[in-house]
């Protein structure tokens, strides 16, 4: 496993191991772990205190049999955990934390109490002298409880050395004045830090601590006792680097610079300062901040200064590249580390005392480093990577080739390759460095000397000029995109005046003149473009205050203009909206099943690095003390070595408690617990047929999709949204950028951060109170009749009468007015007679209760949008029912089947895609309340083939379909979720007792609804009893496709017949596959 990092991580790891230390070997292992812990965190008071307490407990336990140790282990324990070893450990721990002036007293008080306990038993002069020395030493160290320590010393002298009380106490008080003054100077900072810590203001605490560090680091140059000032400053750094700034690379770098300055000061002034081992310091620094390139660079440099071997320094480089965090902040950390490594290779090769193969090793290492960095950058940024703008590694290689190998042409080829990169070719600094290198090469070439110089033809000598350096400057000036061409022009003209011939100078002046004109025109264009951009930005900011056109653009989507959520949505699959009945009063019981509105964003945590074989039970047991878990989603990592879990708690308070387990140990694994905020998106308006694989495909380019959750359709089959959780916040942010993207050319995707508090107010006639609901409409009335009646009270925008699939008027209509006031005025028609019926008129009320979804023939899904305004799904109009002879109920039964074990998160469109592959569908009714759907095919043969093909089909992972009759479907209960925890993948949901295939009596329902009077049409009494044959074969109830007459109310005799026939496969009127109602 990975080595723990940080004070809390070590304590959690050792604590976990100590709980299982039941024998001597395990206890010794814990001691070894503590040794590693104090080696990694030498300034941690908590670790030292825990270590010493553990060792002291081992010493006391092995002294007698009361602790339950075997006799053999007691004997070995007395040798391993001796009294002298325990006291020596306390002394060592105190030396490590003594200059933590705010809390070192916690350690010292415990240690001296043990010493005093032993002295009380022995009362030896040696013991008195030893403890007196401890007190004198302690009182000369600045600490917050100096007065309390002085009082303890006074009591000690009174008890054990009263004769020397006055002289000794006076001497100690005088020698401690420097310590008291040092603490008084620091006390204002300590008081401020205490107040900030108590207030819980983390930012204020950090700001004060940084201010304190700046002040403390300056004291070494002001103090009379530099040794004490350095010790106090190192004590302060021990506090912050094992506490509040343990993972702050800036503070680690500050400490490194401070220590480096102290080393230089100690060498130049010959002072003896208490400095730590710098190699150990950088090892700790890079383990805490492995992403910091500057710290790795200093680590390599310090190892080189310390005389480490090549392979030892190389091990540091390998440790840096093996960490997964080096590119956390991009390529800067990678380049910093590799620059230090390449510098080490170059200096090793240039060392006169280097081995013979040093040059070859350096060349191979430099070329390999260049290749590694390039691959790293392309892996991180793909084709967008353009290299290091400071070309640090290339410059080291060029220097090596020039000065060590003497390969000038090879070095020049590297310069030319760099000049072909636009990132560098547009930089004046690059060309100046290239020019200076050429001048250095020019100056290094010796002048040709001859004892008898020849006179050239024409009588003149040939002048030696740096032509290659001149050509470099000419190439730079020819770049039209150079960032500072004026500087290059100045250098070019000066260079030509210094080294070139007159004709070259003339050409240079011409070239610079033309270049200056071109630069002037370029600057003018840039200024004009900047002014235009500024004006456009100002105009855009002014237009922000105008009305948004986002809603108008959204109407292009085929899902229609009625959108539930346009602002950041955050509904959940169990929203606490009171379910209101449309046609019946019995739906109120469903309200009790609705969960409270859940804020998953702020009540979830992401837990990573769990054991690979972890179970849900183990996770629940681990977090049970921290809160109630609503939902738990476990996912094994692709490497197979660990598991992650997204845990939803009941409240934000539970989350705050669970976050305390961050960096603690789950078995042998150190887990990470982070808030789940910013990970989950509300996604809607995707194609109705989209499943989890489709949703994951949409966001494939954004990052790692952790989970996709679809809502339950049990109470609203029109829901079409899901929650997509990502592994990290960056991926979730990238996914939000897809908001508004057009999918398949017609669906405008909604993709926003999940937030239940951000919901767009409903729009449309119902939400605005402009629609009235009319009941008891005469069966002979049409839309024009109602329009004539209601137009007397205002301007009627729309009239619709609810009809079944056969076009029959169901006695309900909806009338939409232009204004809310007109709709309220139309309420005067309530309880007035219209034709043969007494109307019931009321303002339409919104409802989300749509427990079934019905689609016929080739019509689109009954879930066309995330929501809509309409209260009732419109059926076919009178002219849409089709011609020809209508099928009989028996024919409908023969070609109708039921699909069972369908998750209540799957909509009718997804079922239709699966089913219609096997034949033409006449009608499909989704019944999530029974975990299934009813499908009517064009003929019985098609139904039979489909039933065979769909049996055992896996519609979602772990859920296989079953086929059967409609009666079988209605015996299935709705899907149950216990405590929101799914304890197994692929488990079948519990079904009702009636769902058993064995013959048994149907238990009486808990809440029996009796038929009521008052429905439209001919009146029937409760005494109406149909014949036995008629009830089984020719009972004229509404068929599956809605072509029969309206359902007759059942009598007491019907209920009795249903009860008695349950064990024989009969189910009253439902035996023929009839659905009670229009579905």
Walkthrough of the structure:
By secondary structure, this protein is an alpha+beta fold. 46% of the residues lie in helices and 11% in strands. The protein is built from 38 helices and 25 strands. The strands form 8 sheets. The protein has a 5-stranded antiparallel sheet with strand order 19-21-22-20-25. Helix 22 (428-444) runs antiparallel to helix 23. The two termini are 58 Å apart. Mean pLDDT is 81; it is low at 545-596, 859-883, 979-1047 and 1062-1079.
Helicity level, as a percent range? 40-55%
Radius of gyration: 42 Å
Q: Give the termini separation.
A: 58 Å
Low-confidence stretches: 545-596, 859-883, 979-1047, 1062-1079
| Number of continuous helical runs | 38
Shape: extended
- Strand arrangement within the widest β-sheet reads 19-21-22-20-25
Give the tags.
single chain, alpha+beta, 4-stranded antiparallel β-sheet, 38 helices, 1079 residues
Structure summarized in a few sentences:
This protein is α+β, with helices and mostly antiparallel strands and 1079 residues long.
List the SSEs and their pairings.
Layout: H1 7-19, H2 24-40, H3 45-61, H4 71-80, H5 83-97, H6 104-122, H7 125-139, H8 146-160, H9 165-175, H10 177-199, H11 202-217, H12 226-241, H13 249-269, H14 278-288, H15 293-305, H16 310-322, H17 332-350, H18 358-381, H19 392-405, H20 408-419, H21 422-425, H22 428-444, H23 467-477, H24 485-499, H25 502-543, H26 550-554, E1 604-611, H27 616-623, E2 629-636, E3 642-649, H28 652-658, E4 665-666, E5 669-670, E6 672-675, E7 680-684, H29 692-698, E8 705-709, E9 721-726, H30 729-736, E10 742-743, E11 747-748, E12 750-753, E13 771-775, H31 783-790, E14 796-803, E15 809-817, H32 820-825, E16 833-834, E17 837-838, E18 840-843, E19 853-856, H33 889-894, E20 896-900, H34 908-915, E21 921-927, E22 932-937, H35 940-950, E23 954-956, E24 959-960, E25 962-964, H36 966-970, H37 1028-1034, H38 1052-1060
Antiparallel strand pairs: 1-3, 1-6, 2-3, 4-5, 7-9, 7-12, 8-9, 10-11, 13-15, 13-18, 14-15, 16-17, 19-21, 20-22, 20-25, 21-22, 23-24
Helix pairs in contact: 1-2, 2-3, 3-5, 5-6, 6-7, 7-8, 10-11, 11-12, 13-14, 14-15, 15-16, 15-17, 16-17, 17-18, 17-19, 18-19, 19-20, 22-23, 23-24, 24-25
């Amino acid at each position: 496993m990975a080595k723990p990092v940080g004070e809390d991580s070590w304590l959690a790891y050792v604590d976990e191991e100590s709980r299982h230390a039941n024998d001597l070997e395990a206890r010794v292992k814990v001691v070894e772990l503590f040794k590693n812990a104090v080696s990694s965190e030498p300034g941690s008071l908590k670790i030292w205190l825990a270590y010493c307490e553990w060792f002291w407990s081992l010493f006391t336990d092995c002294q007698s049999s009361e602790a339950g140790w075997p006799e053999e282990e007691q004997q070995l324990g007395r040798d391993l955990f001796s009294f002298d070893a325990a006291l020596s450990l306390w002394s060592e721990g105190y030396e490590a934390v003594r200059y933590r002036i705010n809390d070192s007293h916690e350690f010292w008080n415990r240690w001296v109490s043990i010493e005093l306990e032993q002295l009380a038993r022995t009362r030896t002069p040696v013991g008195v002298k030893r403890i007196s020395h401890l007190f004198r030493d302690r009182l000369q160290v600045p600490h917050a409880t100096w007065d309390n320590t002085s009082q303890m010393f006074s009591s000690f002298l009174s008890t054990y050395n009263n004769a020397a009380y006055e002289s000794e106490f006076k001497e100690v008080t005088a020698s401690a004045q420097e310590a008291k003054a040092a603490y008084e100077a620091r006390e204002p900072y300590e008081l401020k830090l205490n107040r900030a810590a108590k207030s819980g203001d983390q930012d204020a605490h950090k700001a004060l601590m940084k201010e304190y560090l700046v002040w403390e680091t300056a004291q070494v140059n002001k103090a009379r006792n530099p040794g004490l000032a350095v010790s106090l400053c190192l004590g302060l750094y021990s506090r912050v680097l094992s506490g509040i700034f343990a993972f702050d690379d800036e503070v680690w770098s500050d400490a490194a610079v401070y220590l480096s300055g102290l080393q230089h000061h100690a060498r130049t002034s010959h002072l003896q300062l208490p400095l730590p081992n710098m190699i150990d310091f950088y090892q700790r620094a890079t383990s805490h901040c492995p992403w910091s390139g500057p710290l790795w660079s200093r680590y390599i440099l310090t190892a080189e200064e310390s005389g480490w071997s090549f392979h030892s320094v190389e091990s540091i480089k390998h440790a840096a590249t093996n960490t997964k965090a080096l590119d956390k902040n991009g390529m800067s950390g990678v380049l910093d580390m590799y620059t230090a490594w390449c510098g080490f290779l170059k200096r090793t090769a240039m060392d006169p005392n280097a081995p013979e193969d040093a040059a070859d090793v350096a060349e191979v290492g430099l070329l390999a480093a260049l290749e590694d960095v390039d691959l790293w950058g392309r892996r991180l940024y793909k084709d967008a990577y353009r290299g290091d703008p400071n070309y640090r590694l290339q410059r080291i290689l060029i220097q090596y080739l020039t000065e060590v190998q003497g390969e000038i042409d090879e070095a020049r080829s590297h310069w030319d390759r760099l000049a072909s990169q636009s990132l560098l070719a547009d930089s004046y600094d690059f060309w100046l460095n290239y020019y200076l290198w050429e001048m250095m090469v020019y100056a290094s070439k010796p002048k040709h000397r001859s004892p008898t110089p020849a006179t050239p033809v024409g009588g003149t000598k040939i002048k030696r000029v740096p032509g290659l350096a001149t050509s470099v400057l000419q190439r730079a000036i020819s770049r039209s995109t150079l960032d500072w061409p004026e500087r290059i022009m100045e250098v070019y003209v000066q260079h030509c005046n210094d080294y070139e011939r007159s004709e070259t100078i003339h050409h240079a002046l011409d070239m610079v003149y033309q270049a200056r004109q071109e630069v002037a025109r370029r600057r003018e264009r840039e200024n004009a473009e900047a002014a235009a951009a500024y004006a456009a930005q100002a105009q855009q900011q002014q237009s922000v205050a105008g009305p948004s056109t986002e809603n108008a653009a959204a109407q292009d989507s085929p899902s229609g203009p009625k959108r539930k959520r346009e602002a950041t949505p955050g509904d959940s699959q169990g929203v606490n909206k009171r379910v209101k009945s449309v046609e019946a009063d019995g739906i109120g019981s469903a309200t009790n099943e609705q969960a409270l509105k859940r804020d998953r964003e702020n009540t979830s945590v992401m837990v990573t690095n769990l054991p690979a074989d972890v179970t849900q039970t183990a996770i629940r047991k681990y977090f049970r003390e921290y809160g109630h878990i609503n939902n738990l989603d476990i996912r094994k990592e692709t490497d197979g070595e660990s598991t992650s879990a997204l845990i939803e708690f009941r409240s934000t308070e539970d989350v705050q408690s669970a976050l305390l387990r961050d960096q603690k140990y789950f078995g042998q694994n150190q887990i990470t617990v982070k808030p789940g905020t910013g990970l989950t998106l509300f996604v809607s308006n995707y194609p109705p047929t989209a499943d989890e694989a489709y949703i994951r495909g949409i966001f494939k380019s954004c990052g790692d999709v952790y989970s996709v959750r679809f809502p339950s359709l049990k109470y609203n089959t029109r829901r079409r949204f899901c929650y997509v959780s990502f592994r990290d916040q960056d991926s979730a942010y990238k996914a939000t950028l897809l908001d508004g993207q057009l999918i398949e050319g017609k669906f405008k995707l909604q993709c926003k951060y999940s937030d239940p508090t951000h919901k767009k107010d409903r729009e449309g006639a119902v939400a605005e109170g402009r629609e009235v609901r009319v009941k008891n409409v005469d069966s002979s009335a049409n839309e024009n009749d109602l329009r004539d009646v209601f137009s007397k009270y205002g301007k009627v925008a729309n009239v619709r009468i609810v009809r079944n699939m056969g076009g029959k008027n169901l006695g309900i209509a909806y009338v939409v007015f232009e204004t809310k006031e007109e709709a309220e005025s139309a309420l005067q028609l309530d309880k007035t007679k219209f034709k043969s019926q007494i109307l019931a008129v009321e303002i339409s009320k919104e409802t989300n209760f749509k427990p079934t979804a019905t689609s016929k023939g080739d019509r689109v899904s009954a879930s066309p949008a995330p929501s809509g305004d309409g209260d009732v799904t419109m059926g076919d109009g009178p002219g849409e029912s089709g011609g020809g002879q209508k099928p009989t109920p028996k024919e409908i039964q023969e070609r109708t089947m039921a699909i069972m074990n369908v998750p209540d998160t799957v909509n009718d469109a997804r079922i239709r895609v699966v089913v219609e592959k096997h034949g033409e569908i006449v009608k499909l009714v989704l019944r999530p309340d029974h975990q299934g759907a009813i499908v009517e095919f064009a003929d019985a043969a098609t139904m039979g083939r489909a039933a065979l093909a769909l049996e055992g089909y896996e519609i979602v992972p772990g859920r296989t379909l079953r086929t059967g009759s409609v009666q079988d479907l209605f015996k299935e209960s709705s899907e149950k979720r216990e405590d929101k925890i799914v304890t197994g993948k692929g488990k079948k949901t519990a079904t009702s007792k009636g769902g058993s295939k064995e013959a048994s009596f149907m238990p009486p329902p808990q809440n029996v609804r009796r038929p009521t009077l008052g429905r439209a049409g001919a009146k029937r009494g409760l005494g109406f009893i149909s014949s036995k044959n008629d009830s089984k074969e020719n009972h004229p109830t509404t068929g599956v496709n809605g072509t029969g007459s309206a359902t007759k109310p059942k009598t007491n005799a019907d209920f009795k017949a249903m009860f008695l026939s349950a064990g024989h496969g009969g189910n009253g009127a439902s035996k023929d596959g009839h659905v009670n109602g229009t579905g």
